[in-house]
Design brief:
The chain is α+β, with helices and mostly antiparallel strands and 152 residues long. It has a domain of 72 residues: predicted glycosyltransferase like domains (Thrombin, subunit H), CATH 2.40.10.220. The protein contains 2 helices and 6 strands; from the N terminus they run ααββββββ. Strand 1 and strand 2 form a beta hairpin. The longest helix is centred in the N-terminal third of the chain and has 25 residues. The radius of gyration is 41 Å and the shape is rod-shaped.
C-alpha cells in the first residue's frame, strides 16, 4: 500500500511539473522583475542594454573630400559680345556680356571690387526694346565678373 501511495505522489509531482513547463512555454511576454531583488533586475536590464549597444555597428564619419561643383543641369551658354550698362552700388559702368545663359552671365570690361552677393542691374538693347535684368554678383574673374540672374 505504501508503494502505491509513493507512486501516486510521484505521478502527481510529474504532472504538476509538466503543467508548469507547458504554462511557461505558453507565456511569450517577459516576466516582471521580482520585487525581492529589484537591484539585480536593474543590473541585468543594464547589461542587456549594454550588450545591444555593443552589437550595433559603429558609425564612422565620412572623410572630407574637396567639393567639386559639376552642374549637369546647367543652362547652355551662348558666347556673345553684347554691350551692356551695369548699375552697381549706385554707379553706372559699361561693359559687354561675354557669355550668357538663362540662369547667369559673364560680363567683361568692368573692374569690380565688391563681395559676392552684391545686387546689380543689367540693361542692354534687344531688337525693339531695352532689357532690364536684376542679378547678383557671384564671383570675380580676371577680366570682369560673373552674375546670377534673379527671377522677377
Amino acid at each position: 500500500m505504501a508503494v502505491r501511495k509513493k507512486a501516486k505522489r510521484a505521478a502527481r509531482k510529474a504532472t504538476r511539473k509538466s503543467r508548469k513547463a507547458r504554462a511557461a512555454r505558453k507565456v511569450t511576454r517577459r516576466r516582471k522583475p521580482s520585487r525581492k531583488a529589484p537591484k539585480a533586475a536593474k543590473r541585468t536590464a543594464r547589461k542587456r542594454v549594454a550588450r545591444r549597444r555593443a552589437a550595433r555597428p559603429a558609425v564612422v564619419p565620412m572623410p572630407r573630400l574637396p567639393i567639386e561643383f559639376i552642374d549637369d543641369g546647367a543652362a547652355p551658354r551662348c558666347r556673345s559680345r553684347i554691350p551692356v550698362e551695369i548699375e552697381i552700388a549706385g554707379r553706372l559702368e559699361r561693359g559687354a556680356i561675354a557669355d550668357m545663359s538663362a540662369s547667369g552671365a559673364r560680363i567683361v570690361g568692368v573692374p569690380v571690387d565688391l563681395p559676392p552677393g552684391t545686387p546689380l542691374q543689367i540693361r542692354y538693347a534687344s531688337g525693339t526694346s531695352p532689357v532690364l535684368l536684376i542679378a547678383e554678383l557671384v564671383r570675380r574673374t580676371d577680366d570682369g565678373f560673373a552674375v546670377k540672374i534673379l527671377p522677377r
